[in-house]
Amino acid sequence: MPAINVSKALDQSHASGVFDLAEIPLRELNQALHDLTPGSNQTAWEVLNPKGSHSVAVGVDQPVTIDVRGSVGYYCGGMNDGSAITVHGSAGPGVGENMMSGSITVKGDASQYAGATGRGGLLVIEGNASSRCGISMKGIDIVVHGNIGHMSAFMAQSGNLVVLGDAGDALGDSIYEARLFVRGKVGSLGADCIAKEMRPEHLALLQDLLDRAGVTGVKAAEFTRYGSARTLYNFNIDNADAY
Amino acid sequence: MTYRNPPTTPRKSATFDDYTLSEIRRAAANGIYDIRGAGAKRRLPHFDDLLVLGASISRYPLEGYRERCDTSVVLGSRHAKKPIELKIPITIAGMSFGSLSGPAKEALGRGATLSGTSTTTGDGGMTEEERGHSKTLVYQYLPSRYGMNPRDLRRADAIEIVVGQGAKPGGGGMLLGQKISDRVAEMRTLPKGIDQRSASRHPDWTGPDDLEIKILELREITDWEKPIYVKVGGARPYYDTALAVKSGADVVVIDGMQGGTAATQEVFIENVGQPTLACIRPAVQALQDLGMHRKVQLIISGGIRNGADVAKALALGVDAVSIGTAALVALGDNDPRWEAEYNELGTTAGAYDDWHEGRDPAGITTQDPELMKRLDPIAAGRRLANYLKVMTLEAQTIARACGKNSLHNLEPEDLVALTIEAAAMAGVPLAGTNWIPGKNGF
């Protein structure tokens, strides 16, 4: 019976920490990850044949490593709280959305909304990220080795977005207290987002982020810092043209 | 004698009435649109425009005090491993901590729990007060994602993805600086004292195909245990219901334009969206067309006030109703006992809607530590429970009169309309006729 086959496969995968999504449903993978308890010896996980699956390794709350061998669909690592996920491929929309802690590394490119509303942890995109990267971010650190698309860091509240390449139009529109560091060109700045002085504490913070993201050969001093002008924090009718 | 022209009585314009004139003067002086709380205040076709027929020779009633009339409802039976079972089909709508004080949220939880029903978080995250005092708590998943985290998601009893609300379909939340206290600011990851205007769209999905994937993600995170509601403002109820069902929702919530808000533009509240009454039949029709009526549950809200409204809404095909404004009134909002203080604020009990200013004399829509103390959450919770009990008894009274041993057995055939408008919207005959406007070619 199929049910027996699945549980047998599950037993085998538990022993090896390998989940082949060509054989085992996504539900079994996420359930096994959620069933982990503190101190578990199953600290290394591998996911084979993701083939663009959505919601791979979402809601994990234990400090395990998860290597995903291939590209994923939407929301990989969503609400991650402590695990270290590596996507050995590209990621679809919303990778690491609402991450709490831990890390996610995407070896390829990332689609829209990477790190949306993230609250903590580190998201590294080794390729490029599409539009709305870091939208509504709330404390997450995001490092993109390549470029990012338009409307990135829209309404970004807190955290740091580091871009080694260029940023698209309307960067940081309606930004709150997040910090943006861009090494290349910025298409245009969004409402209330301005270039700011790079003070020593920002250089130190940025260098630490670059180190943690495994970036070498790039100096913090090569970046420009952007943040909120704070002119839209309290409504003023004379600012209405800004929207 | 000299001839005098007979005087005419000074006549004010129906178009430029006193309120309109005052609003023009206010706008000219301040240069900012009027922001207020609550829902549409204009006269709208509503449940008052429907009547229940009751039993007659062809139908016999149930004994009012002797024969059972079931009020329970199960929500989320489509996909969730743990559907919600409520004793009454009246739930407490989402209202944020931030717009409401901590004790007010606690009171809502206490009242709902005493009544065997659910309460709902809001655009500000989950507080310990409401989780601790709510047996059944629905956790809203909003565009702002303030306070959103997987731990609270898992300790919720259901998840409500909020696409919109009746007071402002297409609009985001708003909380002005006066109410962004230290605690509210921390929960929302925002600087204290700023005017906070939440996004109107979700940051990581757009459209029904994305929504389906988003629902899948939330189900995976919560191991398919929690019912997932999708809440929309009353705009395009037929298609919104159909698309929510297509996206995998367990429950569809539709909030008509009388549904309240903590704060938004007056022009938005009074001019965008549809009346609650106009939303029900299209939504039920969508469920029936998909073969999902009673499989995906429908909750309607916006201007529900008494057991008659509940009975009529259920007769039109909804599974449960939700109350917000009425629940606040039960707690003590707009109570005439504070009339002198309402007068100081330039208003009167019953009209107070400047909930965004945080100066609520009743201590409900405020973050002011002194005003908050005026609301005793235990006594206020008891008042809410009393009110819910009365609403339920009233609805049962009507259902028994129609010969129904369950509130959910009420049906459109039990209703007539007093106006052509209400007849057309509700899809029931105009009283004294068999005419349903829009049906059968008429």
Automatic annotation (TrEMBL), chain A:
Pfam families the record matches:
GXGXG
Domain Glutamate synthase alpha subunit C-terminal: residue ranges: 61-188
Q: Which GO terms describe its molecular function?
A: oxidoreductase activity
What the entry lists under CDD domains is as follows:
GXGXG
What InterPro entries does this protein map onto? Glu_synth_asu_C, Glu_synth_asu_C_sf, Glu_synth_lsu_3
The residues that cross the membrane are none
- What this protein is called in its record is N-methylglutamate synthase subunit B
UniProtKB/TrEMBL annotation, chain B:
CDD domains listed in its UniProt record: GltS_FMN (cd02808)
Which Gene Ontology BP annotations are present?
glutamate biosynthetic process
Q: Which UniProt keywords apply?
A: Oxidoreductase
Record has Metal-binding as a keyword: no
Keyword Oxidoreductase applies? yes
Q: Where is the Glutamate synthase domain?
A: 75-332, 356-404
Q: List the Gene3D superfamilies hit by this protein, alphabetically.
A: Aldolase class I
Region: Disordered, residue numbers: 108-132
What domain of life is recorded for the organism?
A: Bacteria
Which is an annotated GO molecular function term of this record?
glutamate synthase activity
UniProt lists compositionally biased (Low complexity) regions at 109-121
Q: Which InterPro entries match?
A: Aldolase_TIM, GltB, GltB_archl_type, Glu_synthdom
**Which family does the record claim for this protein?**
Belongs to the glutamate synthase family.
Protein name, please? N-methylglutamate synthase subunit C
